[in-house]
Amino acid sequence: MLFVLATDSVSTSAVVCSYLRDRLRADDEVHAVNSKEGGGATAADEMRAGEDALEAVVDELGDDVTVETHQYVRGNEPAEDVLAHAEKVDADELVMGIRKRNPTSKIVFGSVAQDLLLESNLPMRVVPRESV
What we know:
By secondary structure, the protein is an alpha/beta fold. It has four helices and five strands.
């Protein structure tokens, strides 16, 4: 299977990798994707955080399966980049982490997660993570 893992932080990568680790087989492939707007809209520390998130996936899963990382900085919305990549590689499943919410806001996901859920026809796994 080919999994596209959407990540925006090291903590998201850790939670999603923990979920995936038990499901992966040696012939599976993971494409970790991070997207930033770029230009003046993205600070250097945000770029480093995205790179660190991708490197965390390699560190967690790279010994067991093929892991490719993709940092997009094209001015697109993150969901647009993740979905375009999933289509390009003909992904089997999209995996993402979502923040745990309090009871009054559980219905609302983050905007990227919500866009991915609404705009993709791929099977998805949504893994809860701690709020950051």
